[in-house]
Every structure is written in C-alpha cells, then in structure tokens.
Write a structure and sequence with these properties.
Elements: H1 8-11, H2 17-20, H3 35-42, H4 45-48, H5 55-58, E1 63-64, H6 67-71, H7 75-81, H8 97-112, H9 120-141, H10 173-188, H11 203-216, H12 220-233, E2 258-260, E3 276-277, H13 279-283, H14 291-294, E4 296-298, E5 304-306, E6 320-321, H15 322-335, H16 339-350, H17 367-381, H18 388-395, E7 405-409, E8 412-416, H19 429-435
Antiparallel strand pairs: 1-3, 2-6, 4-5, 7-8
Helix pairs in contact: 3-8, 8-9, 9-10, 10-11, 11-12, 12-15, 15-16, 15-17, 16-17
C-alpha cells in the first residue's frame, strides 16, 4: 500500500532536493485526502512559482557585471557568469534542486488524484508544473534539442513518482522532451480556460508552454499551432501608454498579458542593483519606443538596470504571456514564408509599445528580412525572462543567427562560441556523488 505523504511541506523547503533524496519520510504526518489538500500543495507559490533557473539570464548576454560586483558574488554566481566548472558547489538551493522540488510537489499530487473525486483541475496543474520544471532543467543541464541526435544524448533524470527509492538515471534528450510534451497534452484536456489565480496554470498557459517548448526544439509548425491555440483563448495586449514609466516597477503582476505567473529563483547577480544592461541592446530602442523608459532604470553613471519585469515584486518574471505568443507565431509565420501574417503579428504587438501616434509599421523585403526583424524584437520584448539562453542555444544552430558572447572580468576575457559545450552547465557535484549519474563534460 502506498504510504507517500506530504512531509515535504514541512521538510523539503529546508533541504536541497539531492539531500531530500537521502531522507526517509516520517509516516506519522498527514496524507492529503481532499481536493483542497492537493490544491494547497500546488498553491505554495514560494516553491511552485519562484524557483526556476536564474542561470538562463546570468550566463547569457543581456546583462554584464562590473568586476567589483562580480568579485562580491557567490562561487556559484561567478562560475555561471563565466561558464565555469563546479558551478553549484556552494549552494544547496540551486538551479538543479529547486525545479526538482517543484517536480516532487507535482508528483505527490499525481500520486493521490486517483483516490479523490473531482481532481481533473489539480491533476492538470500538477502535470503542467512537472512539465515546466523538467523543461527548465533541460535548458540548463542538457544539450539543445537536435532531432538527429536527441536519442543519443544524455538529458535529465525524469522523476515521475514521489517515491524517493526509485533509481536516479539520466534519460536521453528525446525521451525527456517527449515526457514534457506528453504531460502538457494531458494537462490541456484537464485544465479550465480560466483559473482563480494566475499562479495556477490554465488551458491557455498549457498551450503557451507547448509553443515555447516546440520553439526550443526548432519544430516551428507545432510552435505556431500552439501559439495560435493560446492566442485564440487570450490575445490581449497592454498599451504601454497607460503605464507610469517613472514607477519603480511600472508593470503590475497578474496583468492582462499574464497567462501563467512565475519567476526565476532569486540571485543577487541578476538583481537591479548589480546587473547592468548590455549597452548595445539599450541603444537599440528608439526614442519613441516606450520600452526604453519602462524597461530600464538610468543608474546615473552611463549604465542601466532592468525594471520592466512582469512581476510586481521585482523578481524576474519567467511566466507565459500573450506578447511571447505573438512573437512565436510571427516567427513561425516568417519561417514558413508568410511575410504578411508575420508582420501583422509583429505590428499588432509593437503599436502597443510605442508612444501614441508615432509608430510606423514594420515592413520587410521578404520572409528572411521579416524573420530578422522579429528575432530582434523578440530579444527586446522578452528581456530578462530566462528565455535568452534557450534562444541562443537554438539559434546558434543556424549560421546566420549564431552569436559569440564575450565577457571581461578581472583583466581576463571569457568567450562562449556558438554551440560550445559550456552551453550545458555541470550538475552539482553532490548530486553526482549521491546518485552516480553521468556528469556533463567541462
């Protein structure tokens, strides 16, 4: 008889996932027995909505650190920034352990739904959360998806049960992506169109996540399909003319674009006081582009910080929103040669971002030109959402979009070439020691 219990709610918040895996449950604690019990597990927003990998921004090229600020950071943050070795050696609550905590919560719920009536909604939410956490882990700890080699490359451990005694093995990348897709497709049939709170995933959010996943796989027909499905349910955009650009956080949480609300786990190195925005990126915004004042804070010394998060608490929003869906659908239209439709989606978004009466619709000579402009606007619109790292990984597979990143610290130059093996972070050493799974090369 299964004895799984939610002792997690008491102990896992104080332990990293890898340490948790070595801990035995206290069977005297309470077993969830109602839908409300299961929903309460998923509504722990501290764990379910604010623990996704910050390496997806710190390792990318949207921000830079001054040497003095870099020197004051943790070993983990330093090594992520310069794509170093043993990146998670000094922090237990990290980009590996925190998503697996989300997975555990989801698996606890999934382990009990069949014993309780009326659980379709919570089952759909749990499948979504498990899919989302696996996907986020794949962006950091596995190579980019390539169809011809995905079955031959090591992915991540797929924990599909809360039983801590199940062996930990790394599944191949193909199996991992098929699992996240399978979970989401099941979730779509269970989730409602609207949820009481935006920290609970809805049907539109599940479509949006599928679109994001297929985009990362460079499966542009499916990315289009699910972006379109999401937009059929919610295509609302904010008019940035209505926002107060001088506010500390100009964009409110749970705004009309927000389909599912979550954030990157906290890291000082990507915070407003330390992270400086790439100067070339900042200059790329036109004077009448309202994002230039809504997204950026002038530090008064020639540098700029990012304040345009969709999270009113100031954390870096990593959720799913309608602006991302317009950009995915536009990119996929362009890649299929439908230039007019691609530009329609792009201009529908951008007119909401420009000062009233100043916007001139974007034009393009052909689909390739449209794609170039869409990718430029994708970076400018979806800034600091944890998406840039995945975009670099997928676009580096196309010569015309490949990017070399260079960083300067302590008189040394660090360079990340397209498709470099350092686009995959090393798994924490203590996980390797406990489980014996294969380490990523350095």
């Amino acid at each position: 008889m299964k004895k799984t219990i939610i002792y997690l709610l008491l102990c896992i918040t104080c332990c990293s996932c890898e340490k948790y895996l070595d801990t035995k449950p206290d069977t005297s604690l309470v077993v969830p027995s109602t839908v409300q019990d299961l929903q309460a597990i998923l509504d722990n927003t501290t764990r379910m909505s604010r623990c996704y990998p910050f390496a997806t921004e710190l390792a990318a090229d949207n921000i830079y650190l001054l040497t003095a600020d870099y020197n004051g950071r943790t070993t983990t943050e330093k090594n992520i920034y310069i794509w170093g070795k043993d990146v998670y050696s000094d922090i237990d609550q990290n980009d590996w352990s925190l998503p697996y905590i989300v997975t555990y919560y989801a698996n606890v719920v999934l382990d009990h739904v069949n014993n309780i009536n009326g659980t379709d909604n919570v089952k759909g939410q749990a499948l979504f959360f498990r899919s989302f956490s696996f996907y986020e882990l794949l962006q950091v700890f596995a190579k980019p998806y390539k169809k011809d080699s995905a079955a031959l490359q090591a992915g991540i451990p797929l924990k599909l049960s809360p039983d801590i005694n199940t062996p930990t093995i790394r599944n191949n990348i193909e199996v991992c992506y098929q699992q996240v897709i399978t979970d989401l497709k099941k979730a779509i049939g269970l989730l409602p169109v609207n949820q009481l709170y935006k920290t609970r995933p809805s049907k539109g959010a599940a479509y949006a996540l599928l679109s994001r996943i297929y985009l990362s796989m460079r499966d542009y027909s499916n990315a289009w399909l699910y972006a379109d499905s999401s937009l059929q349910l919610n295509n609302t955009l904010m008019d940035y003319n209505t926002l107060n650009a001088s506010a500390t956080t100009p964009i409110a949480s749970f705004n009309v674009e927000d389909l599912f609300h979550c954030a990157l786990n906290g890291a000082g190195a990507i915070g407003q006081s330390l992270a400086k925005m790439d100067s070339g990126l900042y200059r790329s915004y036109s004077a009448n582009d309202l994002r230039k004042t809504i997204f950026f804070k002038d530090n008064g010394n020639g540098t700029y910080a990012f304040k345009g998060t969709y999270d009113g608490n100031g954390d870096k929003y990593n959720g799913l929103a309608t602006d991302e869906m317009y950009l995915i659908r536009a990119e996929c239209f362009a890649r299929s040669g439908n230039t007019n439709a691609a530009l329609t989606d792009l201009n529908t978004l951008l007119i909401k971002r420009w000062k009233t009466g100043t916007f001139i619709p974007v034009t393009a000579t052909d689909a390739t030109d449209a794609l170039s402009k869409i990718l430029t606007e994708r970076r400018k619109e979806l800034l600091m959402r944890g998406l840039r790292w995945t975009d670099l990984r997928r676009l580096n597979q196309e010569l015309q979009w490949a990017t070399t990143i260079t960083k300067f610290i302590n008189g040394s130059t660090y360079t990340l070439l397209p498709n470099d093996l350092h686009y995959v972070m090393q798994i924490p050493v203590n996980v390797i020691n406990i489980t014996g799974i294969e380490q990523n090369p350095y």
